[in-house]
Each structure stands twice: as structure tokens, then as C-alpha cells.
Amino acid sequence: MVMAMSDSGASRLRRQLESGGFEARLYVKQLSQQSDGDRDLQEHRQRIQALAEETAQNLKRNVYQNYRQFIETAREISYLESEMYQLSHLLTEQKSSLESIPLTLLPAAAAAGAAAASGGEEGGGGAGGRDPLRGQAGFFPAPGGASRDSSGPGEEGKQRTLTTLLEKVEGCRHLLETPGQYLVYNGDLVEYDADHMAQLQRVHGFLMNDCLLVATWLPQRRGMYRYDALYALDGLAVVNVKDNPPMKDMFKLLMFPESRIFQAENAKIKREWLEVLEETKRALSEKRRREQEEAAAPRGPPQVASKASNPFEDEDDDEPAAPEVEEEKVDLSMEWIQELPEDLDVSIAQRDFEGAVDLLDKLNHYLEDKPSPPPVKELRAKVDERVRQLTEVLVFELSPDRSLRGGPKATRRAVSQLIRLGQCTKACELFLRNRAAAVHTAIRQLRIEGATLLYIHKLCHVFFTSLLETAREFETDFAGTDSGCYSAFVVWARSAMGMFVDAFSKQVFDSKESLSTAAECVKVAKEHCQQLGDIGLDLTFVIHALLVKDIQGALHSYKEIIIEATKHRNSEEMWRRMNLMTPEALGKLKEEMKSCGVSNFEQYTGDDCWVNLSYTVVAFTKQTMGFLEEALKLYFPELHMVLLESLVEIILVAVQHVDYSLRCEQDPEKKAFIRQNASFLYETVLPVVEKRFEEGVGKPAKQLQDLRNASRLIRVNPESTTSVV
């Protein structure tokens, strides 16, 4: 009962929504007024949503049915078109037969007339009985520069005609090497551009029994041509182009994936071209069908003539005759093999790459371990041409000119089919080229923000996510293939990392960001790079090698800034205690020194807000420890000596200033204050720098130890004039 009510309510709701005067706003207003609360609205919303899903399913079903009907209709149209062509050819043949009847009667009438004339004349009057057809056999020129080869039935005559004509065409002597080839038809044509219908050039067409040769005119050499193109007839389609004045008397030749349009001199020559092309194609197809049937038909054992039936055989010759070795035949008469080239063309046109490769695998499996007689070689030649076309389409699918959306998975279809075709190396190259273009486009489209660190976060996310997805897709697509592909991927990853570092350095180092900002950016890049270790790809050494020059420049630049600032403070040094004025300022300084690693700073503070150290020494301590912390974020082994030498240069500036002031100062109180600052510098700051460097690097620094040991000169003999340098 409830189900029936539900179905009736749904049908009523459907009729209401499908009515012509339906207004959504008025419907919602009435529904809100009639509902008892939120629950009714939720139930009604669910009914509408269910109705929408049902409608969507019905729409999909209808689209699928219409699509199937469209395919069936297209197939029927194709069949109808084929039948119409056959009917047209039958009518043409009938017309030709009817036209040839008077010609067959003409010789008989001429012979009868000649006999009558000879009976009525006397003494050599037979000269008037001349054969009217004498001299007309052979090569008949047709109007408009077109001609059909109607030489005698002998193959030598056809070959001589072909040789005579092709001697006028440069670069096509190889055509004469094909046995059984002869000229069927030839004539002058004008080629037009297929897109803009602009005249391109004058050409001459030579139609052989198995191919069509197109040659271009040589203006400077009258009657001579240059080879332009050669098309096999079994891969050639002829289309009649409807007259559209002034463009008329044209026909199109389709050779996948290209096409060419030619114009004949008049309508008659155009009709002759169309007819003779179709006739020659049909004759070639019939000839090859017969050859395949003969090759597939089993042959009985050869009959050996008995000795009694051969009266010329030597009776004393008892040597046994060598048995004839019969060549094994391959059955190619099956329907799927006969239709294989056409099925491949259809699959390629419909972008059914998997179906095309399945057909090729089926053929290869069938012909495996079988001999290769001429019919099989001919079939393989046709199939190889389709394989070349399929490969070109798959290569175009992976070209960077195509849309790069969809990520690496969008290339899987084309890559997998290229691998199945045995083009693993080409698939790897095209896949990596496609992904390089995608990464480059993603980086270029990334908007540069005002904050450098924010941009670097986005840059690292985009690049390393793309690299990770590419690596996983590569591993999926090329699993089980040649290991050389993995080497190509590593080379590609290094190249892609160079692209990333270029964008990274341009934003971080070329814009002269502070060392702290540069250190944070490099830290972010390292963290993202380490994520590649999850798939076994470690590119940390690559990013180090690419960034080492820029980081060296940043360290050198910041070192010079610290040295200049320290020298400037030293020039204004008065050797006075610091007065921070407020307890808050003193507490803040204590926290800063504690964060720098100076844990015993309390012993250098005095009463109220006084600090028993010079402002220069305190500022130097904070700046040096800050430089060390930021430099350790940038550290990797290639930067060890650069960082160590920079630290030594910075410390020597302060050490030399304290040493000089201690030797030159005459006031005992100031001298004692300088000695206290020197003690803080040597006994507190330098050990902290040395310890922090060893923690960050993992090994002690002998240069820093030597620098600290040299400070004993000052502590042992403060009056000495010996320099620490």
C-alpha cells in the first residue's frame, strides 16, 4: 500500500515538473507554505533528488541507444554507398559493352566491302582495299593530354610503354624493378590546396596496375617531370568532388592521414580518371583475392610420369629422382584476416587503439612459427603500413601540443599501446617529454605572490607533487620493461629538477632576500625533496649540487654585511656598560642570549637594568649566532669550508678589535672592562659557536679550536703587544 502511494506520488510529482507552465519559484513557495516543518521539506527534497537521478539514468540509456543506432545507421550507409558504387560500375561496364558493339561489326563490314571492290576491279585495283584500322592499335592519346594504354596483350609491349614514359620522370627508376607492372592510364592534372582551394602546381599522373605515381612538371625542361609521390592502390580512396564554379572537374585522393585534390582539364577526362581508378583498384583486389585463394587451397601430390609413358627416357638410368619439396601454405582465407586491414583503419579512425593492437596481436599469434610465402608478405606489408599509421596517431596523442590536463594518468592509454607495439623506447621518450612540458607549464602558470616564502611553498607543492605522480605513473606503465627506461627517467628527473631550481633561485636568491628567508625556503625544498624517498627516488644530492653556487653567494654576501656592521660599531665603541632602562628590555635580552646558547648570561648583569658588557660585544654575539643558525639550515657537505671560513672571518673582526683596544687603552677602569668583554667573548661566545657548529655539522672544527686557543695570549699576558692574528 505504501509502495503504491509512493509510486503514485512520484508520478504526480513528475507530471507536475514536466508541465509547460511550471514555475520553480512559485512551486517552492507553495511547498514551503504547505509543509509542516523541516522534515517534510527534507523528504520532498529526497523525492526530487531521486527523480533527478532516475531522469539522468534514463537520459544516459537513451544516449547509449541513440549512439548504437547511429553506428548501425552509419554502417548501413556505408553498405549502401558500396552497393551504389558497384551499381555505377556495372552501368559503366554495360555502357562500354554497348559502345563496343559497332566497333566489332566494323571490321566485318570493311572486309565485305573490300571483297566486293576487288571483284569489280581489274589489274592491281586492290590498292583501294586498305584496312581502316591499321596503325590504330597501341598507345591512343585521349583528349586533354590524358591517355590509356591499350597496347597489345603481350607483357613486353606494356613494359616498353612504361619504360618509355618513366624515362621522362626523374627519380623513379626503382619502379621498373617490380615484375608484372605496367601502365594503365596517364594524364596532366592541376593540384589544389585541400584547405584553401588555391592552385599549387601542375602535375602528371601515371596510373599503374598496382600504384599511382604523381610527378611534377619541370618548366625548364619541356616534356620532363620530377618524381613527387607514389601511392599503393589498396591504400588509396577516390572521392568525386562536386562542381562548385569556378572550382569544377575535381576529384580527391585520400591516403590516410593526408589527402590531395586534383583538377582535370574537362569533365570527360575527370570521368575517365574516376572510372579507370576504380576499375584498376577492383582488378587488383580481384587478382590478390585469387592469389590468396590459390595459396590457401591444398595441392595434391605431384603426379610422376611412369617410365612406360615416356618413350625418350633412358632405360639404363636407374638413378632415383629427387623428390620435390612442397612449400607449406598458410591459410589466409578466413574472414577476419581478409577484413583485417579495413578493421585496423576503422579502429584507428574511431580512436579504438586497444582494439587495433588486439587485432595485431591476434594476427602475430596466428602467423607465429609459420612460413612467409608471398601472400603472407603482402599481408604483412599492408599491416605494417597500418602499424605505422597507428604509431603516428599514438605519438601525436603524447605530443606536448595536445592538452596537458588530466595529469600523468591521461597518457597511460597511448603509452601502454606503444609498449604493446614494441615501441618501448619511443613511449618512454614521449611520456617524459610530455611530463616535462606539463611541469614547465604548471610552474609558468604559478602566480608570483608578494611573500617569497608563500610562493616557494606553492612552487614546491606543484613541482614535487607532479614529480611524484610522474614517478608512480612511470613505474606503473613501464613495469617489466627494459631497465634502460628507468635510467632515462632518472636523467629526466635531474633535468626537471634544474627547471625547478631555476624558478626557485630567481625568486629567492636573485631578489636578494635575507639569509633567514633563504634558509626557510631551502628547508622547505629539502623537506619536499625527501618525500620522493617513499618511492625510492633520492634527488637530494641533485638539489644540493644545483643550489650550491647560489647558497655560497648568499653566505658570502651576508658575511660581508655582518663584517661591515661590526666594523662600523667598532669605530664608535666607547667601552661603556649597557643600560637597558627597563626590566622588560633586560628580560628580553636575557631571552635572546639564552636562545643564542649563552646560558650563563646572568653573571654579566648588574644592579637595576645594567649589563656589564659592551653594546658592540652583545650585538656581535647576537648577529654571529643568528648567522650560524641560518647557515646551518642551508648546510650540506659541499658548503663545509665556505661556512667555516665565513665564521672565522667574522670572529676575527671582533677578536682583533678587542685585542687592539686592550693594548691601546690607558685607563685602568676601561682596561678592566675591556678584559671582562674579552673574557665573555673567548670563554663564553667562542665555545658556544664551536659547540653549535659541531652539533649542526656532526664533526668538530679545528679552525675554531685553534682560534680559541690563540686567545690564551691575552689571558696570560694582557700587556703583550702580540696580535692574535
Protein architecture, described:
Belongs to the EXO84 family. GO terms for molecular function: phosphatidylinositol binding; small GTPase binding. Residues 137-146 have a biased composition (Low complexity). Keywords: Cell projection, Cytoplasm, Exocytosis, Protein transport, Transport. The structure is a single chain. With 725 residues, the protein is α+β, with helices and mostly antiparallel strands. Among the domains are: 28-84; 168-294, PH-domain like, CATH 2.30.29.30; 576-716, no CATH class. It is built from 21 helices and 12 strands. Helix 12 (452-477) runs antiparallel to helix 13 (484-508), helix 14 (515-530) runs antiparallel to helix 15 (540-571) and helix 15 runs parallel beside helix 18 (640-664). The longest helix is centred in the first third of the chain and has 83 residues, at 38-120. It starts with a helix and ends in a 9-residue tail after the last helix.
Secondary structure blueprint with pairings:
Elements: H1 2-18, H2 24-34, H3 38-120, E1 138-141, E2 147-150, H4 155-166, E3 169-170, E4 183-192, E5 199-208, E6 211-217, E7 225-232, E8 237-241, E9 250-255, E10 258-263, H5 267-296, H6 335-338, H7 340-349, H8 353-367, H9 374-397, H10 412-420, H11 424-445, H12 452-477, H13 484-508, H14 515-530, H15 540-571, E11 577-579, H16 583-595, E12 610-614, H17 615-633, H18 640-664, H19 668-697, H20 702-709, H21 712-716
Parallel strand pairs: 3-7
Antiparallel strand pairs: 1-2, 2-4, 4-5, 4-10, 5-6, 6-7, 8-9, 9-10, 11-12
InterPro entries: Cullin_repeat-like_dom_sf, Exo84, Exo84_C, Exo84_C_1, Exo84_C_2, PH-like_dom_sf, PH_domain
Subcellular location: Cell projection, Growth cone; Cytoplasm, Perinuclear region
Region (Disordered): 116-159, 285-328
